[in-house]
Amino acid sequence: MIRTTADGRVRTVTIDRPAQRNALEPTDLDALEAAVTETDASETPVVYLRGAGEDAFCAGADLDAVAGLSDPEAFARRGQRAAAAIAEADAVVVAGIDGAARGGGVELALACDVRVATPAATFAEPGVQFGLFGAWGGTARLPRIVGEGEAMDFALSGRVVGAAEARRMGLVSRVTDDPRSVTTEIAQNRPDALCVVKERLRDDAGDEVRERAEAEAFGRLHGRYADDIAAERE
């Protein structure tokens, strides 16, 4: 089950299956995609993705569902669509990771713009231990975020990484007792500026194309907020 609540400029999306350590069934992936896609970034510029309970952020795919798959490739595609919805959302998506993130849970976190862990957070890609691997876009995003060497070690070993090591690797950007506080910090900023900065940072075009688009976006925002900028100088 995917549950959503709104509080001012932050929309909280909760993976709410604590008895299953927030493991996801196929319909949960569709609901997660919809929850993020339907967020209006002009009104709610920040989405906070979390897991219910205190045991896990998300344990990945529900293994009962995986065992009974008739079309595993289609299931992988559903997970990829959910992760892509997170990565491509106009809103900034912050993962608040408390407890275990495993397999697909790591991959959904990798799709988020900001990953914040509590000291109790742990991360692993254990699928290799029983002959599978995460296929929700993680093999593409992980090396971009932590570098190829760290990605190989983490993904091929299946080992569990704690919050401090995840911070050292660059898997998360902060470790704090209150990950949600980061959403409040981000949400205080201008929604359209957040959208543009996310778009520019996510752009994987060549440097010349990116720099031209960056200058154009800066010009748009400057024109929109010229008076406010001038007021800041007074």
UniProtKB/TrEMBL annotation:
Pfam families with a match to the protein in the record: ECH_1
InterPro entries with a match to the protein in the record: ClpP/crotonase-like_dom_sf, Enoyl-CoA_hyd/isom_CS, Enoyl-CoA_hydra/iso
One Gene Ontology MF term: catalytic activity
Domain of life: Archaea
Family from the record: Belongs to the enoyl-CoA hydratase/isomerase family.
PANTHER family: ENOYL-COA HYDRATASE, IP11341P-RELATED
Name the record gives this protein: Enoyl-CoA hydratase/carnithine racemase
Source organism: Halopelagius inordinatus
